[in-house]
Automatic annotation (TrEMBL):
EC number(s) on file: 1.14.14.46
Coiled coil residues, start to end: none
Organism (species): Pontivivens insulae
Any one GO MF annotation of this record: monooxygenase activity
EC category name: oxidoreductase
Record's protein name: Biotin biosynthesis cytochrome P450
Family indicated by similarity: Belongs to the cytochrome P450 family.
Functional note: Cytochromes P450 are a group of heme-thiolate monooxygenases. They oxidize a variety of structurally unrelated compounds, including steroids, fatty acids, and xenobiotics.
InterPro entries: Cyt_P450, Cyt_P450_B, Cyt_P450_sf
Amino acid sequence: MSLPRLSQSPLEHPFVQDPYPFYEIARAAGPLFHWEEYGHACAAGHAEVNAILRDRRFGRENPFPKPTPPHLEPFYAVDRLSMLEREPPEHTRLRRLVMRDFTSRRVSAMTPEIEALAHRLIDEMPPEGDLLSSFCETLPVIVICRLLGVPEDMAPQLLRWSHAMVAMYQVRRDRVVEDAAVAATLDFTAYLQSYIAERRADPREDLISALIAADEDRLNEDELIATCILLLNAGHEATVHALGNGVKTLISNDMWHPHDPDLLTEEILRFDPPLHMFTRFAMEDVEVGGHHFAKGEVVGLMLASANRDEAVFADAARFDPTRTPGPQLSLGAGLHFCVGAPLAKLEVATALPILIARCPDLRIIEPPVYADRYHFHGLEKLICAT
Ligand code: HEM
């Protein structure tokens, strides 16, 4: 059976600002549809997105890998060693090692530090300015630096490398973006090589030292670097926009007042998440949603659309921070479920209530605009006055 075909440019300004009307059309079109501009099948409903994320017949590794263009080799040499791009058994080994040190106990022990950092950033905030850079971005990047053990004063440099690298995953990608990503990968790798050598000689109580200790028999040097880069980049790139989208949603819904921190966090992640689509390859010929996927065929999984599915979330288009949490998919599901989920939730649940309490009159003084970087969904800036 051929799939219904839908056309929507992911670069179009109104879509980037509010993709949810298109998602509604996509869910109505059927369990699966063909997104013309991407040229592959997509799932927009909760049941299908959830099922495919958990279906081991789909994976992130292309079963028919294409040769890497030579100019991109330095980028992919690192990227293809990251757990996010692997499937078992390599994925299991890489993830298990990180999870051993990324326990919820270790993460929740960071609460006092996150609180103190939120207060410090608010103390340093100008009365008017970009909340995204002064608070939403600075907080998670410093937290992930501390967790890994990278000096905090490296945060601005890490942001530059990370932004250049993750630009490779956005739909608007050209040679300039590619060259910048390669340059950032080389610099980031060189920095980590020398930093890891330092920690090898002088281990501390941090995640990099722990990974090095396990590394003796488990991770080789290249995998160690790829893992550190993944954690450092994933550790802030989405959280900044969970915070930013959350502030924007609360203020624009006239709800800038205290809420239950955990329910608020769940609802912010459900309602306007920072990452909207991930893809999978069919690892074998497989039949799903009435569609025959040939081995190697791609499917797009529309996480933010699944979160608005009325079959799972009543009155899904309404932001309701008292809602009983449901199975929202902003952090993925299955094998690749976000390693940093407890940390991301703790950061939002800790930092936002402090911001609300300390800045009760916070207001947005310039209309916020979402950046044209689909599948990332985050604001360009968030100009506020306290
Ligand atoms: C609100 C913030 C965050 C969001 C929305 C988010 C979302 C996601 C999603 C959807 C995936 C799965 C991708 C897929 O299935 O293809 C993922 C994976 C991952 N995330 Fe996050 N993430 C966030 C914060 C973090 C943080 C703070 C870390 C810190 C280390 C982190 C580390 C990772 C890693 C390492 C993976 C790969 C897991 C694997 O492949 O097994 N994330 N994240």
